[in-house]
Amino acid sequence: GNSVTQMEGPVTLSEEAFLTINCTYTATGYPSLFWYVQYPGEGLQLLLKATKADDKGSNKGFEATYRKETTSFHLEKGSVQVSDSAVYFCALDQGGSEKLVFGKGTKLTVNP
Amino acid sequence: EAGVAQSPRYKIIEKRQSVAFWCNPISGHATLYWYQQILGQGPKLLIQFQNNGVVDDSQLPKDRFSAERLKGVDSTLKIQPAKLEDSAVYLCASSLDGLYNEQFFGPGTRLTVL
Questions:
Q1: How confident is the model at residue A7 (pLDDT cuts 50, 70, 90)?
Q2: What confidence tens digit (pLDDT) does each residue in A57-67 have?
C-alpha cells in the first residue's frame, strides 16, 4: 500500500543553519505530495504541496521538489529561525482521493 | 475566518469508560475527517464524511468507535468502551470539497486512557 518514510528526529540546529528533512514515498499512480507543520499547541497546517513530478512547492522560505525518479520530496530551508521549531510531516494523497497518508513526523528544534 | 473547532482539548478517562469528542468544521466545508495520532506517529485517517454521508470508514474500529455528522455540519466521534491503546490525539479536519482541496486541521483532543 501507499506509505511515507521520513528521516527520524529529533533534529536540532542553530539559527541560520541549513535544513534538510528527507521524505520518500511508495505509491501507486500519481499522488500529490505535501508537507504539513505542527507548531507547539496548534493543529497541523499545510506548509507546501506539489501535485505532479518536477513541481516545486514553496512557502515561508521552505522548498520541496517532487522527484518521481527517486520517489522523494525532501524539505529544505536555507536559513532556519527559532520560530521554525515545530514537528514537520510529509504526506501524500492517493491520486486525488483526499485521503492523506502521513509520515511519522520529524521534530525540529532551532536554538538561538 | 474561524478555524476548525474541537472540544474538549484534553480528556482523561479509565479503561472501559466511554468518551465523546466534538468538531465544528469551517463554515461551508463539505468534507470532514477524523484522524487518530498516536504519540510518535503521523495522523491516521479514521473516517471521512462528505456532507452527512460516510465516504471512507475502512480504518475505524467499528466495534468500539462510532462517528456521526448530523445535518452535514458538526460531528461527534465516540469511543465505547475505551482501551489503553486508544490514548492518542484525535484530530478533526475539514476541506471545501473536490480534488486537491487543502485540509484544515483543528487543535485536537488529547485522550489519556488509564
A1: confident
A2: 999 999 999 99
Name the DSSP letter for residue A96.
S
Comparing C-alpha atoms, which of A60, A73, A69 is closest to residue A22?
A73
* Bridge partner list, A5: A24
List pLDDT tens digits, range A63-83: 999 999 999 999 999 999 999
Distance separating alpha carbons of residues B1 and B76, to the nearest angstrom:
22
Q: Please state the φ and ψ torsions of residue A17, each to the nearest 5 degrees.
A: -75, 165
Q: Which residue of B has its CA nearest to A92?
A: B100
Supply the DSSP symbol for B34.
E
Contacting A with CB below 8 Å, chain B residues are: 3-4, 31, 40-45, 48, 56, 91, 93, 95, 99-108
- Residue B78 CA to residue B82 CA, distance in Å, equals 9
Average pLDDT, chain A: 93
- What separation, in Å, do the N-terminal and C-terminal C-alpha atoms of chain B show? 37
In this complex, is the C-beta atom of A42 within 8 Å of any C-beta atom belonging to chain B? yes
Decide if A94 touches B, using CB distance below 8 A.
Answer: no
Nearest Cα neighbor of A87 from B93, B4, B50, B105 is: B105
Which pLDDT does position A8 carry in this prediction? Answer: 84
* Cβ-contact A38, A87 below 8 angstroms: yes
> How much is the pLDDT for A38?
93
CA B24 to chain CA mean position, Å = 10
Structural contact between residues A7 and A19, judged by C-beta atoms closer than 8 angstroms: no
